[in-house]
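Illustration: Malic enzyme.
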Amino acid sequence: MPCQRHPQFGQLLLGTSGPQDCALTGSALLNTPFFNKGAGFTAEERKHFKLTGLLPQNVQTLEQQLKRAYDQYSSRRDDLAKNTFMISLAAQNTVLYFRLIQEHLKEMFSIIYTPTEGDAIQNYSRLFRRPEGCFLNINDVGRVHDDLAQWGAPEDIDYIVVTDGEEILGIGDQGVGGILISIAKLVLTTLCAGIHPNRTLPVVLDCGTNNEDLLNDDLYLGLKKPRIRGKEYDEFVDTFMRSARKLYPRAYIHFEDFGLHNARRILDLYRPSMACFNDDVQGTGCVTLAAVMAGLHVSNVKLEDMRMVIFGAGTAGTGIADQVRDAIAANSGESKEDAAKHIWCVDKPGLLFKSHKEKLTPAQTCYARDDSEWLDTSRSDLLSVIKAVKPHVLVGTSTKPGSFTREIITEMASHTPRPIIMPLSNPTRLHEADPKDICEWSKGTALIATGSPFPPVKYDGREYEVAECNNSTCFPGIGLGCVLSRAKLLSDKMLVAAVKALAAQSPALKDPDKGLLPDVVDVREISVHIAKAVIREAVVSGLAREDGIPSDEETLEAWIREQMWDPVYRPLKLVSKEKATKYAMGALGLAGVS
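Result:
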């Protein structure tokens, strides 16, 4: 449902109360998705905006339009066709598009995002109809600044999602098709946190591709050359980052689906100087940590006493490790080095050791154990590690289906009364274990969270909810907090504040048979709480640049809600083109419109 409006803050740049200025009339108005209401324009608006004769006579409510749109959506033959229908609807009517998803979020989430969006990305060049987003390529580094500058003035862009398309949704290198993941993530920020859709910018950095199918496809739209790496790649990324920072100094930058060897180092390089975030590293880590904290509350184990094994130490696995390590350090006062000793990482060579040296990625190094710890114990198999460590938490980010065997789950349950077991690999076919098996093998004691949605499981006459570690419950609220506070940086303390706010919403805190995390359908309310926590910490840390942020809890919440965009038809107020802002001209978020 739409947020309650707070007109005392209506004068804010992102305020959503009252009418919207609009300088467009006739066909130009109907062809501008952000303002278009279709048959929903009132009789008065039709007269003032010269729409009579351009629309059928019957004025329809948004609810009537939703019914028609849902019927059309439902008639599509398969999920990919439904995804394509939604893309078409987004290009026609922004409000109707987002409201339709909001009304059917549980059903449509997998259509607009994973797994169906993965199919759309794989078929990007074949389904292409019209360009959306900003396409930058490594052969034209000298044009990056000018190409980015087309999208608005310094105050016009709040949120940028950028990808290089190398590691998309578990389907690998998709080259220029990665633009769709940037678009999809921004759709989620609007749905889940009310980020204004016309103040966002999706970007793809086209560096070529190593996907042979794309290179051999005559219809492929990206650079048809092997992926460029090394110094040339780094200079390209740096040119983009410096240009984005200069052109849109208030914008928050979200990295998405960069490759294993680039994701962490790029984040580490730019994080000290600007507000940026990597969902694969930090988002996965934050939402998993929130589930762990809720599970530890249920099992009555302190965070600083916890032992965790992570099976799969890639971008996601080490990202989770980092968030857990940082939270332990913040809670206990331990150094990060000591906090890392609570975590054991298992990857292709088995348990990670310092003797692996050059085989370790920079992100894995701090979790490698001293060889002297394991002289008489098997290092290679997960079961041996679990028997030796006796962890409270087992996390799977391995993409190795079935790797959490009956023996492993039984061993977990033998040494801790409420083991926290999290098979997080996506898509579903890659999960480390099925929740119903985990529940049975642990005799109903396991607290389970997964990377994909699963129905509740039953054991011995009781039903247990399975929490989904869905990043969408976390990253949109973090982004909203950074956007509204105009944060200079996104600090570790701001992330920990976000995690605690999410964990506090866990249904399991009231009923241990409920999920460790709230359902995605409640995510807009969750985002308000997360944004509040992030903003408060930004203010305390001196990282907030926005003036007039309310200090008391109730007013701060009202201030946040007023600036969250909702998919509702607001009244339009006709203004002259001479005095119109870019917003009133429908030009925000559009390249080449002056």
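Reading the tokens back as a structure: The mean pLDDT is 94.
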